[in-house]
């Protein structure tokens, strides 16, 4: 299609929508223009929700929406609306609920049929061009829906009314409210641990997704209780993931999920939100176990992000990298035939790669059986024994061969990278990079800190509005932010404050929290809605949602509760603590039922019960004792821990938050010592790094009674 005949999506801010600009379907973006046209022409709306990284979204585009005959049918009988789920998670969430109620499953592409007012009456996911896989052909679906809309309108109206009621009922969360208590954490922990796969790691069966919140919750509970089984679940899972094909063994970073139970064959797209949270998992697990594999995996994520998924010049983390270059391949960029490996490497290096990564003539990919996913099949020692050479020799050959294969892979056409900068996902990576800055004690850590702060500064400069809070994305017209955007940004700002003690970040975190309290709060039931009170209406399915479920990103209500508790610790403002508890109460009646998917609620419960752990280190800038104390504090992992390095100049400036200033009134800021506080209790200060670690371990083993 020529530029002159491109449809309305040609100038969209979304790369996913722009990719459909050449299609003969006369698409509308989500908005009042589409609804007005549907009402004026009395046509049903065909809603297509997908994402630029979604393989089957591109399949249905090519098979159906690029078919002129099918497009003519759509243009004649429907008003077609295309939505990018990353750009409009609010729209996606509501229609996913509706379509799941119809078909029993959701996912992308989501195909919905709506009345002109936006209420859905029918839908599904992917429909093939011909009948297949037990699914009717898309043409037959379109013709059936069009005919029913014209001849059985009353039925469609009744179906839409019933479905809208079902969605409203599902989102009302009846019975959700309860009396929160710290015992909920143990219920959630037990429910999650029961789903552990003892053979392959992870939770439940194929397909397997990373459940990052669950791993961090189990690690925290191990730290609190000493339960070795919980550590085993975390360690075993992270090891299997890092050795599997779900991790990019050459380029670093994790693919979205594994199609099998063994973490071997992934869906090859790489998402920002997975990698930020997995980076935290591996950093935290490294601090607890000192397992080199965990540090190496964390470093691999950072290296991939630095090279592929970020704007190095201005700051900002990109959204995703596609799985495929075209619809004719399935992860071909990331996979290898035996011949490709042997053509790229000398014989000795190729043989090491073949043994280490299980590269054989028959690989794992169904579309091309010669293609191999690289996964760690043998340890270096096993390879050395098989080849009758030294371990050091194998390690050297392996390192050289990996670098050469990565260089060879770089010559292939690279899968598309979505460079959109979404607020919530950027905030999650800012927090992850600040974690990395405190753990990676080399140039990587310093670079992570610099880039994280540069990214945060960019969002404050370009994406903040005093009345509305953070926009959902940078670089285009203002798009109302979600609860996730405000809460994750507030959390990242607090992380930045703790890393720098720059009052500017703390003030911004308070402003973001106040936006949440003023514009997102459910004043009747507690908790927060996903959309602000003044956000534009969503049409016929404009139900109020209070997200509790981690799906897959951490639930906004749980993150908001943690932000409020952290602010209370620094300010002593009881409003923050009360609102945090009201949020936990709002879901206490149902949270344990969500198991894996309420792990962040479990973390929020931990913080509310135990309070954040503040380690205040005083002493002049460059004082070696103070540096040792701060360094020791950073090597100890504890959820909610903040290491605050306070110099005499900083204390005298009077810019620290009120409750923090009151914590240290009797300390001399020019004397090197560490003061550990949790909630209203502070322990006697120490000036020896080993004694500080001993104290932190003692606090880390507090009883459940003390936690309550």
Poorly predicted regions = 703-708
| CATH C-level name of the largest domain | Mainly Alpha
Shape: globular
Number of strands: 16
Walk across the major sheet and give the strand order: 1-3-2-4-5
Continuous helix count: 29
Approximately what portion of the residues adopt beta-strand conformation?
5-15%
Largest sheet: 5 strands, mixed
The helical percent reads 40-55%
* Alpha-beta content class: alpha+beta
Calculate the terminal CA-CA distance, rounded to whole Å: 65 Å
| Gyration radius from CA atoms, angstroms | 26 Å
Reported by name, the CATH topology of the largest domain is Glycosyltransferase
The overall pLDDT, averaged over residues, is: 94
Question: How many structural domains are formed by the residues?
Answer: 4
At CATH level 2, the architecture of the largest domain is: Alpha/alpha barrel
Write a structural description.
The model is unreliable at 703-708 (pLDDT under 50). 51% of the residues lie in helices and 8% in strands. The relative contact order is 0.08. The N and C termini lie far apart (65 Å). The chain has 29 helices and 16 strands. It is globular and about 80 Å long. α4 (68-77) packs parallel to α6, α11 (272-289) packs antiparallel against α12 and α14 (347-357) packs across α16 (391-410). It is an alpha+beta fold. The chain folds into 4 domains: 3-172, Glutaredoxin; 183-325 and 418-610, Alpha/alpha barrel (Glycosyltransferase), CATH 1.50.10.10; 338-412, Arc Repressor Mutant, subunit A; 613-707, Glutaredoxin (3-Layer(aba) Sandwich). β15 and β16 form a beta hairpin.
């Amino acid at each position: 299609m020529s530029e002159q005949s491109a449809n309305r999506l040609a100038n969209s801010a979304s790369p996913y929508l722009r990719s459909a600009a050449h299609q003969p379907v006369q698409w509308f973006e989500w908005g009042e223009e589409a609804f007005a046209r549907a009402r004026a022409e009395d046509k049903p709306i065909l809603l297509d929700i997908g994402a630029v990284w979604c393989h089957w979204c591109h399949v249905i585009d090519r098979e159906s929406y690029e078919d002129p005959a099918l497009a003519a049918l759509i243009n004649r009988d429907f008003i077609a609306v295309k939505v990018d789920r990353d750009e409009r998670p609010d729209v996606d969430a509501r229609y996913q609920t509706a379509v799941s109620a119809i078909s029993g499953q959701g996912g992308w592409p989501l195909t919905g049929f709506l009345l002109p007012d936006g209420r859905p009456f029918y839908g599904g996911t992917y429909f093939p061009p011909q009948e297949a896989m037990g699914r009717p052909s898309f043409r037959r679906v379109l013709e059936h829906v069009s005919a029913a809309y014209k001849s059985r309108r009353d039925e469609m109206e009744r179906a839409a009314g019933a479905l809208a009621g079902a969605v409203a009922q599902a989102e009302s969360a009846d019975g959700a409210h309860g009396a929160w208590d710290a015992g909920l954490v143990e219920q959630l922990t037990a429910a999650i641990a029961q789903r552990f796969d003892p053979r392959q790691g992870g939770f439940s069966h194929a397909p397997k997704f990373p459940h990052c919140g669950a791993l961090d919750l189990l690690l925290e509970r191990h730290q609190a209780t000493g339960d070795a089984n919980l550590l085993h679940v975390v360690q075993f899972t992270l090891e299997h993931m890092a050795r599997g094909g779900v991790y990019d063994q050459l380029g670093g970073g994790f693919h979205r999920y594994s199609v099998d139970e063994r973490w071997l064959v992934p869906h090859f797209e790489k998402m920002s939100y997975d990698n930020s949270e997995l980076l935290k998992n591996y950093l935290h697990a490294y601090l607890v176990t000192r397992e080199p594999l965990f540090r190496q995996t964390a470093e691999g994520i950072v290296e991939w992000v630095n090279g592929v998924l970020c704007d190095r010049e201005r700051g900002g983390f990109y959204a995703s990298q596609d799985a495929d270059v075209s619809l004719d391949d399935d992860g071909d960029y990331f996979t290898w035939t035996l011949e490709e490996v042997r053509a790229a490497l000398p014989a000795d290096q190729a043989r090491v790669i073949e043994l280490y990564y299980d590269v054989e003539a028959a690989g794992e990919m169904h579309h091309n059986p010669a293609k191999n996913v690289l996964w760690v099949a043998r340890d270096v020692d096993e390879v050395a024994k098989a080849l009758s050479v030294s371990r050091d020799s194998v390690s050297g050959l392996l390192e050289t061969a990996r670098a050469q294969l990565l260089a060879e892979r770089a010559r292939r056409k690279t899968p598309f990278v979505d460079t959109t900068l979404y607020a919530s996902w950027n905030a999650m990576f800012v927090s992850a990079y600040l974690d990395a800055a405190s753990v990676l004690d080399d140039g990587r850590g310093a670079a992570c800190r610099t880039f994280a702060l540069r990214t945060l500064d960019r969002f404050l400069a370009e994406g903040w509005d005093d009345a509305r809070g953070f926009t959902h994305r940078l670089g285009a017209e203002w798009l109302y932010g979600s609860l996730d955007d405000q809460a994750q940004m507030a959390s990242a700002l607090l992380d930045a404050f703790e890393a720098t003690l720059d009052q500017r970040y703390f003030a911004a975190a308070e402003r973001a929290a106040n936006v949440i309290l003023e514009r997102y709060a459910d004043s009747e039931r507690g908790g927060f809605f996903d959309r602000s009170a003044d956000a534009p209406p969503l049409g016929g399915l404009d139900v109020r949602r209070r997200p509790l479920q981690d799906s897959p990103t951490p639930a906004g209500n749980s993150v908001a509760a943690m932000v409020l508790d952290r602010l209370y610790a620094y300010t002593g403002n009881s409003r923050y603590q009360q609102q945090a508890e009201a949020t936990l109460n709002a879901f206490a009646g149902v949270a344990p039922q969500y198991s894996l998917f309420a792990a962040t609620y479990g973390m929020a419960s931990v913080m509310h019960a135990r309070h954040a752990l503040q380690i205040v280190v005083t002493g002049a800038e460059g004082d070696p004792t103070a540096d040792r104390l701060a360094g020791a504090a950073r090597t100890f992992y504890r959820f909610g821990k903040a290491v605050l390095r306070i110099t005499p100049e900083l204390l005298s400036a009077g810019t620290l938050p009120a409750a923090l200033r009151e914590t240290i009134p009797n300390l001399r800021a020019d004397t090197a010592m560490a003061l550990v506080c949790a909630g209203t209790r502070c322990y006697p200060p120490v000036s020896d790094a080993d004694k500080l670690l001993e104290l932190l371990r003692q606090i880390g083993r507090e009883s459940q009674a003390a936690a309550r």
